[in-house]
Amino acid sequence: MDYYQRTAQRADHRLARHTRPGRQPDGAPAGVAPELSDKASALAWMRGERDNLLAGIDLDSPGARPARVIALTAALADFLLQEGPWEPAATLHTIAADTAREQGDRLEEANALWDLGRLRYSTSDYAAAEALLKRAVAIYQDLGDRVGEANTLWCLGRLRYSTSDFPAAVELLKLAVTIYHDLADRVGEANALHDLGRVRHTMGDHVAAARLVEEVLAVYRVLGNRAGEANALNDLASVRRANGEYEAAGALLERALTLTREVGDQQGEAEVLNNSGALLLRTAGPHEALARYRQALRLARQIRSPIDEARALDGAARAAAGTGDHGGALADLRQAVALYSRLEAPEAGEAADFLTALESEDRRAGR
User: Fold this and answer.
1) Which has more pLDDT, 259 or 340?
2) Are 229 and 220 in contact (CB under 8 A)?
3) Quick one: which of 256, 233, 237 has its CA closest to 246?
4) Which residues, 6 or more positions from 270, have their beta carbon under 8 angstroms from its beta carbon?
5) Side-chain half-sphere of 137: how many Cα atoms within 13 Å?
6) Alpha carbon 9 to chain centroid distance?
7) Distances (CA, A) of 309 to 32, 35, 62, 260, 283
8) Which residue has the higher pLDDT, 35 or 245?
9) Buried b / exposed e across 33-50, counting CB within 10 Å, b at 16+?
10) What average pLDDT does the chain have?
11) pTM (2 decimals)?
């Protein structure tokens, strides 16, 4: 169990985008542990050992003890966030938080609340996510743990962005950037700045957005963080597309797609495919765009990412309408609107308006 715990923690370092508060574990014994030299190898090991790792979290299993349950659950957090299933993962994080509280371990309680908050955010349960993250940040602040505080402020900033509260998102992300900078945590600073660029882009400040994302891209490349580089390339492509720089956007997206596949980042790949579909709709035409959106849709459903699924359906509907396939457009758009509404996504209003327009057009045409 020591071997599994330590190796899982090493694998988690490859998958995680944050520095986890608390003492870093020793590595597993040399000559026994797998190399886990990159994200792909860490993910492969986690997948192969999933049942053994989950068995170690079972409080009723031989050798299980509170500290082990807490540590193993934390080590699996980013893996379960990517791979699911999410509801069983939420149960594990809840057990870890309760166990840490019973043991009087406030730092690990905060870490578990943070993991659970991130999970709820990913399923677009924003109200639950906000409550959990606020509990976590209060503990981190009380403990004086600035790493945990910065991580949680970053998550809260992303949450505010997702709910279209852009001014609050900017302030929270700026706070996170400041703390990460003070801690000399360049990766944490590269993530918060990255999302600040996304907010600026959404607010229409494309010049500031491009400056921020280009700065982030340079840092990711210096650090050798290929997953971060892919995300930054994808976002920079969105900025270039918004400015009408279609050729530059296309080149950025091709590089981003290659990187996401090399590092095994399927969530990132789905985002890039959707972004590529939007670009193709403006350039190559609806048929090419539709094919790319269908790729995104298949992948989003495979990885159970409802927001990427909704965006793929939305884009596919617009592409299908461009080809004259109104029936297909309506079918896709109705699914997209239902998903957006359930997720309380900011795209819900625009998609609903488009659906109303398509339905009115169909009635006028007698279809």
Assistant:
1) 259
2) yes
3) 237
4) 296, 299, 300, 303, 305, 308, 312
5) 20
6) 20
7) 41, 35, 41, 18, 23
8) 245
9) eeebeebeebbebbeebe
10) 89
11) 0.74
104 pLDDT tier (thresholds 50, 70, 90): very high
Q: Which of 299, 296, 311 is nearest to 343 (CA)?
A: 311
List all residues 6 or more positions away from 283 whose beta carbon is below 8 Å from its beta carbon: 246, 250
Residue with tokens 């998102």: 169
What is the rounded CA–CA span in Å between residue 204 and residue 74?
Answer: 38
Q: What share of the chain is helix, strand, coil (3-state, %, to 5)?
A: 80, 0, 20
143 and 178 Cβ atoms separated by less than 8 Å: no
Burial class (CB in 10 A: 0-12, 13-18, 19+), 63: exposed
pLDDT at 233: 95
How many Cβ atoms from other residues are within 10 Å of residue 105's Cβ?
17
Residue 107 has pLDDT above 60, yes or no: yes
CB 127 within 8 A of CB 92: no
Tokens describing residue 277 = 């579909």
In sequence order, what are the residues at sequence separation of 6 or more whose Cβ sits closer than 8 angstroms to the Cβ of residue 297? 309, 312, 313, 316
Nearest to 138 by CA among 128, 127, 153, 160: 153
**Rg of the chain (C-alpha set):** 21
Is the distance from CB of 159 to CB of 148 less than 8 angstroms? Answer: no
At 15, list the tokens: 């998958």
Q: What is the C-alpha to C-alpha distance for residues 352 and 266, in angstroms, rounded to an integer?
A: 28
CA distance 250 to 261: 17
355 within 8 A of 334, measured Cβ to Cβ: yes
pLDDT confidence of residue 170: 94
pLDDT tens digits along 277-306: 999 999 999 999 999 999 999 999 988 788
